[in-house]
Write a structure and sequence with these properties.
The chain is mainly beta and 312 residues long. The protein is built from three helices and 17 strands.
Length: 312
């Protein structure tokens, strides 16, 4: 056998003996993923709307206001604040009166004086010569509840007319403005020495009185003894008023004394009387008093302030 064949045969045999059989791969089964369950949506409860509160009806404001407003009759400022049935409410009520130029003339706090009724402690007293034009009353209600009803009242003060007091009525050199609504009840003496008395009778009976007395006086300065003598000369000798106090003062820079009196009887009450020494050395007694009341009416004070000395 040729050598090269033998060599090939040996190599083939060696190759057969040394070859490693490649193992057949074993397939490992792939794990199967368990599909996850989709969660069911939770049952969300439907929100319940809160109950709508029952609205509380508002308070009703009613202003008690006269048809005519003038200085002759002070206005008692009163209002009603009516709550709905079954509701109790508290409120703070205030008022302001504006004149025709929107300037504050009067302010007040209204306080409850009976059920649902409020009143100011002092009345509205207009001046003798109010500013012409439209005035306003403004009422403010501070409360937690709603309020219906207007808090505004517009009004025009009624003008006053006055007595014409000439030198045949009063001595020359003095003036006094007395509303025509005051009735003259006494006219004594003459322009040398005399008196005039007027009373206000708004409802058929007197409520206030203003009087002026005059007589020649001493040439020296006014003294207390002279003033008290002049004052007592104007009293009813059988039923005189009591003199409660006195004060030395002036009237338009002229010497004067102010006396506080208390008049007796059912038509009595407090009074104010000034004894004044005029520039002509005449003595004058200017008196204002209530007639059967507890206080001197404010309008009398305003009238008294119109008493002035003028050059003849």
């Amino acid at each position: 056998m040729p050598k090269h064949i033998t060599l090939i045969t040996i190599l083939l045999l060696l190759s057969a003996c040394t070859s490693i059989a490649t193992p057949t791969p074993v397939l490992t089964p792939t794990s199967t993923l368990t599909p996850s369950l989709t969660p069911s949506p939770a049952n969300t409860p439907t929100p319940t709307a809160p109950p709508t509160p029952t609205p509380i009806p508002p308070l009703e404001l009613r202003i008690l206001w006269p048809d005519t407003v003038s200085a002759l009759a002070p206005v008692s400022l009163e209002v009603d604040l009516i709550p709905p049935p079954g509701i109790e409410a508290t409120a703070v009520i205030s008022a302001i009166v504006l004149d025709a130029q929107n300037h504050a003339y009067y302010r007040a706090l209204l306080r409850p004086d009976e059920e649902h009724h409020y009143r100011a402690s002092s009345p509205l007293q207009l001046p003798l010569d109010p500013m012409p034009g439209a005035w306003q009353l403004l009422v403010r209600v501070d409360t937690k509840l709603n309020v219906t009803g207007s808090g505004v009242r517009a009004f025009t003060p009624a003008p006053l007319t006055f007595h014409t007091l000439t030198t045949e009525t009063l001595p020359s050199g003095i003036t006094l403005r007395v509303p025509a609504a005051f009735k003259e009840t006494q006219a004594l003496g003459d322009t040398w020495a005399g008196a005039r008395v007027w009373q206000h009778t708004p409802r058929g009976y007197p409520t206030g009185e203003i009087a002026i007395w005059w007589a020649p006086g001493p040439t020296e300065a006014l003294l207390y003894n002279t003033a008290i003598m002049m004052l007592e000369a104007t009293h009813d000798a059988e039923n005189p008023p009591g003199v409660e106090s006195s004060e030395e003062t002036t009237w338009q820079e002229h010497p004067a004394f102010l006396f506080q009196e208390t008049w007796p009887g059912t038509e009595g009450g407090p009074a104010l009387a000034w004894v004044i020494q005029g520039p002509d050395l005449w003595l004058y007694v200017l008196r204002i008093r209530t007639v059967g009341g507890n206080d001197v009416p404010a309008i009398l004070q305003q009238i008294a302030e119109t008493f002035t000395f003028v050059t003849p």
